[in-house]
Amino acid sequence: MVMYEEEVTNFSDDFRDWITHPIYTFSRHLISPLLRMGRLLQHTRQSMSWPDQMKAEAAALEEELLQCYDRDVEANRGPIKDTADVLHVNEAMHAAALIMFYTRIMDMPFTTPLIRRNVDKVQREASFIAPSSLSSRAIIFPLFIAGCEAVDGRVRELIAQRILGSNYCSELEPSKVVSHLSQIWSVRDQSPGLTWLEWSQQGNPLEDYHRSS
């Protein structure tokens, strides 16, 4: 199991065999790809043209994200020390990472089956975590990412209910998170075929969306 320097220095050896990072509550393997995704996302916001190097980086990132999940699946076949709730958060984060990659890097419409399946997966994984669990704090981010791309009314309702019902995260202001989602749904429903980049270029309606995600 790969461990980062701060884990070796600051954390108990009890976490050595965990699949997830003890602070981030998701896979160690996802940390680097998420950072790379952030850099690519900055480029997509600044320029509509993609040089060959950026296309190659996006293709490599897609493969890395898929390999990260495969590695965690393989690790799950061995002795597992992570708690069940943390593993559900990790599954949700993997799905949220794919949602972000395909909608924000590859500019895939949020109505496509691939996005809808991963949105459903985030909601389903969150449903396994009790609102009283400490992991409720960690599930808010993937729920918000999934909520931004949710199409089906029932899924939106379940995501909103789960966010509002989360304990131990009052500082995250769940009601404000749901309010942002409601605004996003209202705006996006007006033109559901538009991609995330097309929405982002329209400016004001999605300013909160950009800042929050």
UniProtKB/TrEMBL annotation:
One of its GO terms (cellular component) is nucleus. InterPro entries: Fun_TF (IPR021858). The keyword Nucleus applies. GO terms for molecular function: DNA-binding transcription factor activity; transcription cis-regulatory region binding. GO terms for biological process: positive regulation of transcription by RNA polymerase II. It is found in: Nucleus. Pfam families: Fungal_trans_2. Keywords: Nucleus. The keyword Nucleus applies. This is C6 zinc finger protein. It comes from Colletotrichum orchidophilum.
